[in-house]
């Protein structure tokens, strides 16, 4: 038992319980208070760090525990930037990212070197090293873009790519300058750095994805998956340091490497965001504030002069780089502001440069004082530069985010005039619930308000004992679906009903709630020869015209490699053609998987037009495929880790092909180990006759009749008896 008299309240505080409690209350109340005065919460946490730090009220020391959590927070920001980046957008903006990275490195380097040499009187090596601090930046304000839901737009993606380029180049300058003074620079040094960097990149981009795919296939425990992701990230940070690079580069590239294994709408992504925003990133911001020492303002004119020049050059360099990027690529003004805001803050790499430069001793003065590569005035000026640039960055990104978010919401309001979309999940087996919910949330467009329903139907004709058992099973499945969706910050509307039979219950639910998309799983005996679809699914296909997804999940959707889509001839004539294409595009965008579509030439042209007319077209590989009688070609094209989507048709409709009748046999025999979706598009109700032959069969009969009549009326020619 600890007595009150035994508690130590001396400053700085040393009791770990009190320290952690204080930090948590700061994380809780600081954003609340600063939101009241319209100041970004990031600034609130930095100011709180200044107040409680060793240069403020001295409540806390910036000891190893604060440094540890702060370092984790910095790596976490870079990791989430790589993890949340839109890979499709990143590929499109690779060149823009490269150009911006060069701009944001070269411009601050040039103007910083000139200012340090002519205004501050530094020698050339010190001037170049000082200007490399201006070239670096930290994505401190990135969480603001996530909060506004615009972290995947072009300006943010472009800035993230440029961040890696400029930080790598700045750290290479640091290595060259320090190595020159220490005598370590030689051709062997650069060869060693290049080889180690290549090995590091190969491990991250080739080995990490293999490990991630294996792990996510084998283990579905939520806690294990989160710990695995953290372990991968910090292994990447360690390997980056071993290769001679900065840890933040390892964190970003690790996030990029496992990006497609963690869909944006997945429970795992939600947990990663939650823990980072609730704990690690606030710790980092508080630790940044604890560095600030306002007493440097009173240490003479020299310190103020150095700080003023550093702040002016740092801000001017990044603004000019953002302005030149805007003019080069004709970006909007708020995009320029976003780029400037995100690239203006300095923390991680800047501290690394100044501390290394400060610790390089060139000699001694006559009085015995050490002559440093970067003086104490530069060290103090750096702390003030960090405070000013972080503050300016937060305000700029907050304002730009508000403007861009308003524009994005205005675009969505225009799109809201389209017919309402409602998604229904039919729950039948407990083991398929999570997979069906994942698919439903994937086909739902980002930020869409379309409701997602989960339905469980009980047959009124069941015996009492069986009915009670099914009721208990249905309740568990419904709870599982609701909890799984809640883990992604999504809501599922539960529906339970009794009906004469299960198919009737589903059909009437579709009609009552105006459902546009139905998601079902295959029944358990589908691959056992006991009717592939089963009577429930077959009845629903006959009696409902809506879009239906029949999903067989052989592995988690986040472990897949590609999406391969087979489209029948004349699919473009069906009413739901554009709707299912948009759904498939949404799946591809949400998972980050490459999309391959096989269809006849005319269908491909229309699909290409639809894709190119979209405001954010995807990179899609369109492959011609005309003969559905050779459907088994896909047994070679579709790999084990591919998602195979077969666009089918109800019998008697325009895109119906007799080969689709063989789908159950093909899928059972050749694709049993694959994840696949059989997609029935929305088709006009009441315009079908199941007794009609397909157009191919009719065309063949007409062709035979033509041959026969020509042989009758053309004397002397042998008749073609081939049938």
Task: Give your account of this protein's structure.
This is Cation:proton antiporter. GO terms for molecular function: antiporter activity. One of its GO terms (biological process) is proton transmembrane transport. Residues 445-545 form the UspA domain. It holds the Pfam family Na_H_Exchanger. The structure is a single chain. With 723 residues, the chain is of the alpha/beta class. It folds into four domains: 12-408, Up-down Bundle (Na+/H+ antiporter like fold); 421-552, HUPs (Rossmann fold, 3-Layer(aba) Sandwich), CATH 3.40.50.620; 554-691, Rossmann fold (3-Layer(aba) Sandwich); 693-723. β3, α17 and β4 (452-459) form a beta-alpha-beta unit. The protein is built from 25 helices and twelve strands. It is 59% helix and 9% strand. It has a ten-stranded mixed β-sheet with strand order 5-4-3-6-7-12-11-8-9-10, sandwiched between helices. A two-stranded antiparallel sheet has the order 1-2.
């Amino acid at each position: 038992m600890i007595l009150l008299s035994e508690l130590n309240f001396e400053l700085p505080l040393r009791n770990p319980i009190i320290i952690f409690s204080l930090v948590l209350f700061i994380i809780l109340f600081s954003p609340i208070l600063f939101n009241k005065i319209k100041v970004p919460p990031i600034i609130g946490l930095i100011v709180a760090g200044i107040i409680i730090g060793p240069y403020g009220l001295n409540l806390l020391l910036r000891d190893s525990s604060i440094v540890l959590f702060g370092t984790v927070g910095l790596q976490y920001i870079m990791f989430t930037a790589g993890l949340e980046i839109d890979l499709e957008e990143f590929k499109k903006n690779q060149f823009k990212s490269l150009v911006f990275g060069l701009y944001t490195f070269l411009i601050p380097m040039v103007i910083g070197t000139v200012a340090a040499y002519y205004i501050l009187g530094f020698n050339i090596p010190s001037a170049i090293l000082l200007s490399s601090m201006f070239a670096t930046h930290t994505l401190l304000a990135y969480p603001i873009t996530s909060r506004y839901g615009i972290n995947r737009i072009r300006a943010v993606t472009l800035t993230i790519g440029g961040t890696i380029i400029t930080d790598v180049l700045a750290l290479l300058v640091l290595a060259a300058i320090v190595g020159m003074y220490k005598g370590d620079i030689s051709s062997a040094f650069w060869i060693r750095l290049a080889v180690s960097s290549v090995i590091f990149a190969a491990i991250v981009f080739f080995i990490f994805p293999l490990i991630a795919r294996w792990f996510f296939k084998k283990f579905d425990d939520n806690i294990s998956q989160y710990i695995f992701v953290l372990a991968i990230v910090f292994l990447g940070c360690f390997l980056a340091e071993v290769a001679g690079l900065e840890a933040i580069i390892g964190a970003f590239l690790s996030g990029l490497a496992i990006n497609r294994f963690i869909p944006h709408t997945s429970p795992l992504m939600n947990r990663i965001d939650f823990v980072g925003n609730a704990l690690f990133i606030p710790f980092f911001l508080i630790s940044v504030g604890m560095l600030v020492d306002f007493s440097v303002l009173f240490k003479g004119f020299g310190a103020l002069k150095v700080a003023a020049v550093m702040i002016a050059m740092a801000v001017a360099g990044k603004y000019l780089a953002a302005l030149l990027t805007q003019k080069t690529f004709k970006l909007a003004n708020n995009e320029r502001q976003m780029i400037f805001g995100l690239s203006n803050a300095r923390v991680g790499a800047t501290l690394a440069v100044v501390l290394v430069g400060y610790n390089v001793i060139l000699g001694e003065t006559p009085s015995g004082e050490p002559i440093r590569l970067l003086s104490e005035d530069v060290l103090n000026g750096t702390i003030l530069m960090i405070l000013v640039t972080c503050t300016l960055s937060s305000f700029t990104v907050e304002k730009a985010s508000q403007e861009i978010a308003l524009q994005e919401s205005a675009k969505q309001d225009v799109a809201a005039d389209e017919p309402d979309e409602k998604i229904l999940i039919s729950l039948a087996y407990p083991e398929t619930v999570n997979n069906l919910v994942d698919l439903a949330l994937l086909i739902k467009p980002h930020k869409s308000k379309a409701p997602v329903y989960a339905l469980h139907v009980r047959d009124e004709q069941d015996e009492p004992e069986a009915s009670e058992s099914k009721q208990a099973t249905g309740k568990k499945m419904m709870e599982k679906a609701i909890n799984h969706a809640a883990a992604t910050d999504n809501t599922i509307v539960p529906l339970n009903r009794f009906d004469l039979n299960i198919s009737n219950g589903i059909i009437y639910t579709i009609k009552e709630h105006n459902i546009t998309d139905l998601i079902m799983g295959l029944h358990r005996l589908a691959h056992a020869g006991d009717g592939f679809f089963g009577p429930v699914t077959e009845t629903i296909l006959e009696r409902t015209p809506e879009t239906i997804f029949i999903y067989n999940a052989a592995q988690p959707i986040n472990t897949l490699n590609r999406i391969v889509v087979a489209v029948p001839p004349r699919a473009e004539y069906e009413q739901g053609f554009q709707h299912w294409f948009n759904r498939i595009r949404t799946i591809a965008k949400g998972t980050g998987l490459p999309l391959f579509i096989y269809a006849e030439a005319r269908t491909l042209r229309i699909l290409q037009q639809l894709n190119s007319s979209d405001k954010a077209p995807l990179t899609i590989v369109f492959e011609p495929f005309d003969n559905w009688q050779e459907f088994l070609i896909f047994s070679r094209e579709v790999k084990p880790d591919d998602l195979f989507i077969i666009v089918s048709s109800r019998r008697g409709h325009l895109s119906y092909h007799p080969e689709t009748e063989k789908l159950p046999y093909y899928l059972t025999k050749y694709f049993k180990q694959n994840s696949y979706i059989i997609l029935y598009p929305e088709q006009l109700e009441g315009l079908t006759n199941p007794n009609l032959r397909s157009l191919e069969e009719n065309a063949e009969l007409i062709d035979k009749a033509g041959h026969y009549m020509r042989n009758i009326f053309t004397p002397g020619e042998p008749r073609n008896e081939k049938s």
